[in-house]
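Entry 14. Ran structure prediction on the chain below.
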Amino acid sequence: MYKRLSIFISILVAFILLLSTGIYFYQSKLIIEKEIINQSTLISSYNNESINEFLLKIRKITYLIYKNENISNYLITDSQSKKAYLEQLFLDYCKNIELIQAIRIVDVNGDIKIFMRECENLSGNKNFKEINLKSKEFFQKVEELDQPQIMFSNFERGKLPETTSFCPAMIRTMVPYFKADKKLGYLVVNFWGEKIGEVLDYLEKNKGYSFLVEFNDNNTSRNGIFLFHPNRYYEFANQFNTKYFLDNIYPHNVVKSLKNNKEGLIKLDNNDFLAYSTVYPYNNYDQAWKICTVLKGSYFFRNINMLRQNFLAVMFFGIFLSVLTSAYLSKKLLSPLTEINKAVNEYSKGNLEYKIAGKFDDELKIIAETVNNMADSLQQHIKEIDENHKKIEILNRLSSIGFLSAGISHELNTPLNSIIITCNLLSDEVKGDQAEDVATIKTEA
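Output, C-alpha cells:
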C-alpha cells in the first residue's frame, strides 16, 4: 500500500507540475507576444516618424538655402563678391547646422563653383581646382529635372576626389535653379547619414536592435543593401563588394514579406521578432527604405526560458517531495489503518479480546476507540446471549422432565387405580390374614 501510494502521489505531482507549467508557458507566451506586438507597433511608429522627420528636416534646410536669391544671382553673374559672400554664408551654415556635411554650387556643366566641406572653404583656396560631377549618378538624376524640385540622392558612402577610401555615409539633397526656362545650375547639400543611425540606435543591446535596408527595383546592385546596421560590416555591400545583402542574411519568406508589405511583425526562426515599416524618400514605390527592428526573444521570454531550463530540476524536486509526503502520510494514515484492519480481521475470527494498539490522532483516534468499543459491546452481547441460551436449555430440560413425569404418572395411575378398586372389592370377600394383605396392597397402591 505504501509503494502504491508513493507511486500514485508521484504521478499526481508530476502531472500537476506538467499541467500547471504548460498552462503557465501558454498564458505567459500569449501575454509576452501581445506585449511584443504592442512594443513593436510603438517602435515602428517611432522609427518611421523619426526617419520622416529627418528627411523633412533636411528638405527644409535645403529649401531655406535654395531660397537665397544670392545663389541664383551668382550663377547668372559669376560675381566674385557674391561668391565670397556665399562662401562665408555656407561656412556659417556648416558651423551652426550639425547635419550639414558639405554645400556645393554647381554650374550647368557640372563644375563645382562653390564647395564648402566639413566647415572648410575648399573653393576659397587659391589652389582649388574645379571638380566636375557629370559622371556622378546622383548628379545625372538632378540634370533630368525640368523644374525646381528637391531630390534626394542615394544614401551611400561618398568618396572624395583626392582619396581612394570612402567617407562616412551620407545623403544629398539636390535642386536645380531656373530663370524662365533656362537652367542656371544646381544646389547640392550633403547631410551626415550617421544621424539616421543615431535615430535608430536607441534600443538596449540585450533587448534588440534596428537597421535600415533599401529595396530598389530599378538598381539590382542596391536591392537589399543595409543603409544602417549595428554591425557596420553589413552596410553598403554594393560599394564594399561584400555578401551582406538582406537575402543572404534572412530567409526568403522574411525578405518577401518585407518587400510586399508596408508594415508588419514577423516571427523569426530563432524566436526573435522583426517589426518593420516603410519610408518612400524618393516619392516612388520602386525605391523604398524598410525600417526594421529586431526584438530579441531571449530578452522577452527570459523568465519562462529560465523556468523551462530548470523544469526538470523542479519536477524531480517535486517528485522527491511527493515521496516524502507519501512516507509521512503512510506513517500518519496507513499505519493506523493497517492496525485497524488487523483488529477487524481478528474480530472476524472471533477474537474479540484483541485491542487496537498504538497512539492515533484526530479522527483516527475516534475510529480506533469506536472499533474497540464495538468489540467490547459485541463481546458483552455474545456473553448475554450465551447466558440466555443456558437458561433456555435448563427450562427446556425441566419442561421435558415435567412432560415425562406426567406421562409416567398417567401410566402408573391407571393400573394402581385398578388395584385399589380390586382391593376394595376383595376386602369385602376375604377374611383374616388375606384381608390384611389386601388392605396392605391397597395402602401401598
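The longest helix spans residues 362-427. Will compare against last week's run tomorrow.
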